[in-house]
């Protein structure tokens, strides 16, 4: 242990504890902007400076270790003066139009400036905006970038892609796409992790809320909304709701009150995906068609973008099943449109997703008879949903639990856990067991694919199951850096699997790039536990028992992997 004094308090901490952590452990918060534990500890912002007795120069607390006998002041006049100057210099290079900023009210720079009572910015630089294609789902605004380097590090260290880098020199230094490429030329997976780790509003998703409001206002459109599994775990965070109050039923109610004609839960089509992807896996597996193993899941568009740019030769090992988002869109514009007697053109499909990559995935085409268009017309993130609820002045306390509309109403617990890493695999195994044995396994028989800690074991959970004499070797991975390491092992022949689930975001969609932002806190694990609780409490635990799905097959798609299912629910992944 190391003994030191911070702000007059005698404390003891373990060796190699930074001053910032030592202070935090003892209830003394030190402000910071660039620091991200384990990812970005480079003291770029110098907001965390503290005074060390006996030393003229202030030191940064995020990357200096507490030493025996140190006497530290975190809030002396000298510290306050320097911290203030450092923040003023950052503000001088920042577009401070907070009223029109997406992060207003949830911005670390705004909070630090307010806490320091900065009422005027003495320095001012003419800000230069770098060009950006505003039609791309991910937007960087260089005039808001504070060069904290978090996006550079998250993309490099966690996602293993290195899309961002420092550009320019001196006062023209900024962060931009690496190698002077455009964002289209870079290998951006659109996972959005740079957005959720940005302390300010320099990175954001393309705002699609106006498109949705216009469709709602258009009397010729029937607006049909679906809400993804992971959204229910997080939407209430920004509205001051407790996790058990913020139900999916209330999101459906909010969407109806905002003017949606029909509202559905994506867990319905997660069950549909299991029917298609589970059947495809068993077919490829038992009929010997799966020569190249493993088969990879295909529902995460961040992963699809990653495999296409980084491992194009493995693309043919992806399942051909479309994601639940896309399958639902296709079913809405065909089966459902028939049911309510409107044409596919009149249906306007909106999805509420925890994800930025889903905005890119919607570009996928839907061909149906005369109709050529898209499965999905607009994708909004959980954050955009919250903005819409706010702008409609809906008070969360007045929302009631509403059921999904018919006839695509049911959703199983297996569908709910799609939103957490391992969930797709677990759901698929529950139904694969049934398809092979014609009886259900215990609902929790495949719990081994759950990761106790997402980042433990490099984010990989391996499990092997025997169903009679059939042995299935599975792996589940989340985070693209972890995925790269796993794919390299598979390619080197060090590990062998039959079926692998990949989710681009650490922890799966619960940690998605479109979820509410809590600077410096990783909430994916808690949100994931919330989904497991919902599954445990669900009356229906198996996708193959979803009666609304069974009726839809009877009335429309015939059976999994039928010709119609093939045309509408599957896709060919091409590079
Ligand atoms: Fe996901 Fe999905 S689980 S990718 O994370 O498969 O976005 O929540 O909607 O499509 O269901 C996201 C979440 C989905 C899809 C589902 C899958
Ligand atoms: Fe989107 Fe989920 Fe994939 Fe992240 S893990 S990119 S949120 S689908």
From TrEMBL:
Q: Which NCBIfam families match?
A: FeFe_hydrog_A (TIGR02512)
Pinpoint the 4Fe-4S His(Cys)3-ligated-type domain residues.
78-117
* Protein name per the record: 4Fe-4S dicluster domain-containing protein
Keywords, in A-Z order: 4Fe-4S, Iron, Iron-sulfur, Metal-binding, Repeat
A single MF term (Gene Ontology)? ferredoxin hydrogenase activity
GO CC term, one of those recorded: membrane
Q: Which CDD domains match?
A: fer2
**Cofactors required:** [4Fe-4S] cluster
In Pfam terms, one family for this protein is NADH-G_4Fe-4S_3
Do you know which PANTHER family this protein is assigned to? NITRATE, FORMATE, IRON DEHYDROGENASE (PTHR11615)
4Fe-4S ferredoxin-type domain segment(s): 136-166, 179-208
- Give GO terms for biological process: ATP synthesis coupled electron transport
Q: Give the domain of life.
A: Bacteria
Q: Which residues form the 2Fe-2S ferredoxin-type domain?
A: 1-78
């Amino acid at each position: 242990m190391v003994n030191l004094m911070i702000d007059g308090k005698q404390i003891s901490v373990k060796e190699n504890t930074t001053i910032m952590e030592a202070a935090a452990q003892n209830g003394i918060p030190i402000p910071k902007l660039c620091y991200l534990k384990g990812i970005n500890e480079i003291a770029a912002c110098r907001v965390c400076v503290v005074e060390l007795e006996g030393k003229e120069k202030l030191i940064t607390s995020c990357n200096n270790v507490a030493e025996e006998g140190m006497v530290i002041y975190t809030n002396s006049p000298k510290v306050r003066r320097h911290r203030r100057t450092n923040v003023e210099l950052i503000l001088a290079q920042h577009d401070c139009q907070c009223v029109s900023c997406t992060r207003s009210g949830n911005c670390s720079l705004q909070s630090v400036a307010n806490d320091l009572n900065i009422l005027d910015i003495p320095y001012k630089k003419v800000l230069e905006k770098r060009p950006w294609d505003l039609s791309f789902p991910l937007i960087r605004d260089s005039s808001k970038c504070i060069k904290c380097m978090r996006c550079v590090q998250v993309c490099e260290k966690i996602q293993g892609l290195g899309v961002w880098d420092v550009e320019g020199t001196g006062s023209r230094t900024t962060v931009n796409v690496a190698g002077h490429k455009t964002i289209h030329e870079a290998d951006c997976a659109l996972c959005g992790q740079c957005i959720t780790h940005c302390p300010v509003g320099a990175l954001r998703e393309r705002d699609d809320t106006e498109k949705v409001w216009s469709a709602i206002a258009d009397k010729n459109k029937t607006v049909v909304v679906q809400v993804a599994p992971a959204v229910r775990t997080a939407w209430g965070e920004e509205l001051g709701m407790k996790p058990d109050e913020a139900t999916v039923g209330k999101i459906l109610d909010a969407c109806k009150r905002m003017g949606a004609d029909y509202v559905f839960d994506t867990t319905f089509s997660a069950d549909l995906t299991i029917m298609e992807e589970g059947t495809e896996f068993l077919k490829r597996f038992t009929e010997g068609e799966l020569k190249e193993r493993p088969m990879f899941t295909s529902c995460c568009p961040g992963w699809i973008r990653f495999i296409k740019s980084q491992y194009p030769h493995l693309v043919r090992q992806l399942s051909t099943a479309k994601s639940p988002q896309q399958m639902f869109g296709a079913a809405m514009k065909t089966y459902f449109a028939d049911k309510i007697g409107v044409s596919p053109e009149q249906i306007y499909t909106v999805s509420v997703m925890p994800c930025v990559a889903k905005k890119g995935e919607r570009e996928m085409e839907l061909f149906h008879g005369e109709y050529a268009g898209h499965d999905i017309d607009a994708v909004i993130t959980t954050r955009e949903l919250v903005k819409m609820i706010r702008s409609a002045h809906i008070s969360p306390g007045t929302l009631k639990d509403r059921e999904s509309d018919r006839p695509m109403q049911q959703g199983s617990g297996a569908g709910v856990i799609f939103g957490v890493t391992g969930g797709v695999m677990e759901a698929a195994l529950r139904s694969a067991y049934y398809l092979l044995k014609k009886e259900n396994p215990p609902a929790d028989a495949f719990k081994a694919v759950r990761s106790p800690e997402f980042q433990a074991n490099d984010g990989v959970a391996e499990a092997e199951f025997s169903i009679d004499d059939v042995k299935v070797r599975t792996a589940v991975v989340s985070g693209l850096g972890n995925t790269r390491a796993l794919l390299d092992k598979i390619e080197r022949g060090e590990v062998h699997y039959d079926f692998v689930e990949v989710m681009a975001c650490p922890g799966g969609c619960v940690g998605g790039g479109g979820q509410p932002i809590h600077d410096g806190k990783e909430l994916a694990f808690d949100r994931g536990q919330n989904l497991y609780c919902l599954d445990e409490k669900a009356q229906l635990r198996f996708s193959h028992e979803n009666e609304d799905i069974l009726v839809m097959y009877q009335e429309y798609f015939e059976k999994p992997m039928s010709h119609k299912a093939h045309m509408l629910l599957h896709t060919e992944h091409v590079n």
